[in-house]
Specification:
This protein is mainly alpha-helical. Strands 2-1-3 form a three-stranded antiparallel beta sheet. Helix 1 runs antiparallel to helix 3. The radius of gyration is 16 Å and the shape is globular. The N and C termini lie far apart (40 Å). The chain binds fe (ii) ion.
Length: 183
């Protein structure tokens, strides 16, 4: 594998692994503030981040002896209002800078598996950004919990949606039994 794409996979693995745990911490905080639906959203998206991290990790299986990864994330205790703003800002970064650049480089270097992993993550992150934005509008406007139905996450690519389970995942084409529901 080309070194630049390999390093980008390592960075993305660190970033998504940290997001996974960070959102679980944010979910606990939302529960403590009695925002159970925002907590559920954080847990669903945390699961999606772990799916993305696993896909990046899988694409690095040729590496022997381990690797050092950095989360590239600023993190510290805060209330749910602040946590949602930080979540939206994090999504802005991965959608506008990190993944578009990683996808482009993987394509230029002919690294198809890495390119697919980055593309799945990019498409998923755009959905996460919309959901976090809705949640922060609720909490900043009426200071109330998000009103939201069942959240479905594809365990193959991380695709996330609210509502019915699709027959096929629109991102990776996995069948409906691959979806995990957060209610
Ligand atoms: Fe999928």
């Amino acid at each position: 594998m080309k070194k630049l794409t390999e390093q980008n996979l390592i960075n993305a693995f660190g970033s998504e692994s940290h997001s996974h745990l960070r959102y679980l911490c944010f979910a606990n905080q939302a529960d403590a503030e009695e925002f159970p639906h925002i907590a559920r959203l954080f847990r669903a998206i945390a699961f999606s981040e772990s799916v993305q991290a696993h896909n990046h990790y899988q694409a690095l299986r040729h590496l022997e002896g381990g690797f050092v990864s950095n989360s590239m994330a600023i993190f510290g205790p805060g209330d749910t209002k602040r946590n949602l703003l930080s979540a939206v800002m994090g999504k802005d970064y991965v959608i506008t800078e990190m993944y578009p650049a990683y996808i482009e480089i993987a394509q230029l270097q002919g690294e198809r598996e890495a390119g697919r992993s980055f593309t799945w993550a990019y498409l998923t992150e755009k959905m996460h950004r919309k959901l976090f934005w809705k949640a922060q509008e609720s909490i900043h406007g009426k200071r109330s919990d998000l009103i939201i139905g069942p959240i479905r996450v594809c365990a193959i690519c991380g695709f996330t949606r609210v509502g019915e389970i699709p027959n096929k995942c629109p991102v990776c084409k996995a069948t409906s039994e691959n979806f995990t529901t957060f209610v």
